């Protein structure tokens, strides 16, 4: 009925209860969980239901299972939602991915960019376009826009110069920011759509314009301040990207 929120499956509710207990310190990192009978009794659930939730926790890296030891809480439990924001180079493989700078310029923001970035129409924003090759084969086209320099400097006065110095380096804009401080509390919101490569991008990949692609549109923020908007074009045949999402 309209207005009603969908109910979570019982196994998901149980999963979240155990995750909350881990995060609140009831089962600290490195500790061994109680036996199945004891844990089921403490949670007031059946052992089959508990076993299913524990399996999901193991899949998501919250717990590990070792013969003779039992179920142990992971030292670094997975974060809620998507795992720590990473540059596309890292997701495609640090050892095999190589970034080629294609365009490094400043331009007036398009309507599309202004939908994602809080910038005035008459300002200039940085635009970086990069090809990411995996084992020598083009695997991703990254198009990134930053907020104008005044907004960057309001977050950190050094950021505009950091991006200026990185123009010729073989990295995406996001990789550059993460490299400055890997502990920077960046977060990303992404949408995923299916489309085709198109003529211009097809020339970059040396593929047919009709090649199916996955398009990831991402907005990157530092706390409540939006910094970057990006499109990542991933044609068919691109290596798989592992993304963890909590249930």
TrEMBL record:
Pfam families: GntR (PF00392)
GO term, biological process aspect, one: negative regulation of DNA-templated transcription
InterPro entries: Bact_HTH_transcr_reg, Chorismate_lyase_/UTRA_dom_sf, Tscrpt_reg_HTH_GntR, WH-like_DNA-bd_sf, WH_DNA-bd_sf
Alphabetic keyword roster: DNA-binding, Transcription, Transcription regulation
A GO term for molecular function: DNA binding
PROSITE patterns referenced in this protein's UniProt entry, alphabetically: HTH_GNTR
Keyword Transmembrane helix in record: no
Ranges where the HTH gntR-type domain occurs: 8-76
Family matches, as SMART domains: HTH_GNTR (SM00345)
PANTHER family (alphabetical): GNTR-FAMILY TRANSCRIPTIONAL REGULATOR (PTHR44846:SF17), MANNOSYL-D-GLYCERATE TRANSPORT/METABOLISM SYSTEM REPRESSOR MNGR-RELATED (PTHR44846)
Protein's UniProt name: DNA-binding GntR family transcriptional regulator
Species of the source: Haloactinomyces albus
Organism lineage string: Bacteria, Bacillati, Actinomycetota, Actinomycetes, Actinopolysporales
């Amino acid at each position: 009925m309209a207005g009603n929120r969908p109910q979570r499956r019982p196994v998901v509710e149980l999963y979240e209860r155990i995750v909350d207990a881990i995060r609140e310190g009831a089962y600290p990192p490195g500790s061994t969980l109680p036996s199945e009978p004891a844990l089921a009794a403490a949670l007031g659930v059946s052992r089959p239901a508990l076993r299913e939730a524990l399996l999901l926790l193991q899949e998501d890296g919250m717990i590990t299972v070792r013969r003779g030891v039992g179920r142990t809480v992971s030292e670094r439990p997975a974060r809620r939602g998507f795992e720590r924001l990473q540059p596309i180079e890292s997701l495609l493989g640090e050892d095999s991915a190589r970034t080629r700078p294609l365009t490094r310029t400043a331009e007036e923001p398009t309507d599309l960019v202004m939908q994602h970035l809080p910038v005035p129409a008459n300002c200039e924003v940085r635009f970086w376009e990069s090809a990411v090759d995996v084992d020598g084969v083009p695997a991703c086209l990254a198009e990134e826009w930053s907020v104008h320099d005044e907004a960057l400097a309001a977050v950190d006065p050094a950021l505009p110069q950091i991006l200026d110095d990185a123009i010729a380096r073989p990295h995406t804009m996001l990789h550059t920011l993460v490299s400055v401080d890997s502990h920077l509390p960046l977060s990303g919101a992404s949408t995923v759509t299916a489309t085709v490569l198109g003529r211009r991008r097809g020339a970059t990949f040396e593929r047919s314009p009709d090649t199916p692609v996955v398009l990831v549109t991402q907005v990157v923020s530092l706390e409540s301040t939006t910094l970057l908007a990006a499109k990542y074009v991933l044609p068919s045949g691109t290596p798989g990207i592992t993304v963890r999402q909590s249930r």
